[in-house]
Amino acid sequence: MNSTLSRLRRRDFLKLAAAGGLALSIPVFGSRLGSRLATSVESQPISTSFNALGTTVIIVIEDEISVEYANQLFNSVSNKISELQTILTRFPGGTDLCNLNQCGKLEDPSPNLVNLLQEATKYSESTEGSFDVTVEPVLNLLQGYLSGQPFPSDSQFDSCLKLINFEKVEVSESLVSFGNQGMGATVDGIGMGYILDKSIDILKSNGIKSAYINFGGTLETIGSRLDGSPWEVGIIDPLNPTKTMGSIYLKDQAVATTGDYEDYFTSNKEYYQIISPFTARSPLFSHSASVVASTALMADPLAVTLMVDDPDAGMNLIDSFPVEGLLYTDNNGVMTTSGMKQLMTG
After folding, report:
1. Residue 107, Cβ neighbours under 10 Å: how many?
2. Are 212 and 220 in contact (CB under 8 A)?
3. pLDDT for 36-58, tens place per residue?
4. 3.90.1150.10, 3.40.640.10, 3.10.520.10, 3.40.1280.10: which CATH number matches 14-85+190-260+288-343?
5. Burial environment of residue 225 by CB neighbours within 10 A (0 to 12, 13 to 18, 19 or more)
6. In 215-332, which ranges are continuous DSSP H helix?
7. What residues of the chain score a pLDDT lower than 50?
């Protein structure tokens, strides 16, 4: 095993081809929202970017609003993301999820954690276990390797495999608990989608009709562009990140993309941030998967599922959901649903 470690930016996989220039480089913190036409109205895109959960958040609004009003919206979204990341991150720091993993149970959990784990269970059930938040012990094992420990042995991976079982997670408004000692949960494969939907809701509830938010590779749009055209999103070739392998055109849709080159633990990329619940190792069928859905919460876990499953089985499963998918496989080239082909033609 080549021990050279390499880390890439988390989920930085989508390139928005239609975005305008940045008006802001950091979120502007202010008071509660005021008039959307408080001062002069901008006809050009207004945007901001900031860091959260180890990745970059980009917000672009193409609406007839003032810069001041846009800044207030950016502030509201930033605050919501900060609130949710303090609940949902699995890394040490006193968060709800961290405390759950350390203690095996959590009393009086945050409603957001309860809601997200309940949604995760639904996707675990509907994907027949291909999506499973209880792969956390494997990620923890591999994180130890990045911290200087020896690469895990087969017996260590196999021990983790015995702990992976979404059916052993009990979730209620008053208590979240694991059925077996040593279990843990990660919401890495669904949490961004959840946070992104909440962020989009803020913009929609404040009258925004044309915008998008890119949360480290999971991207969601509101409406179309101001001129009525769809948002164009270029999907990067995972084997050659300097190039795209095509564009998709979205209106009121979300797209999630994940792949083996994003966050990897070994230089040969055989161990990366996606873990198969069936083997406790990273799946090696494909290099990247993209899913387009009506919400980011749906797109996120189904993109993970496509990476985990055998390509044919994964594409068949995706066909049972109201989504479209694209899979860059190791042996069979690019596979797409029929609807994805239509999205790629604009």
Report:
1. 11
2. yes
3. 544 455 568 999 999 988 889 99
4. 3.10.520.10
5. buried
6. 296-308, 311-318
7. 1-35, 37-39
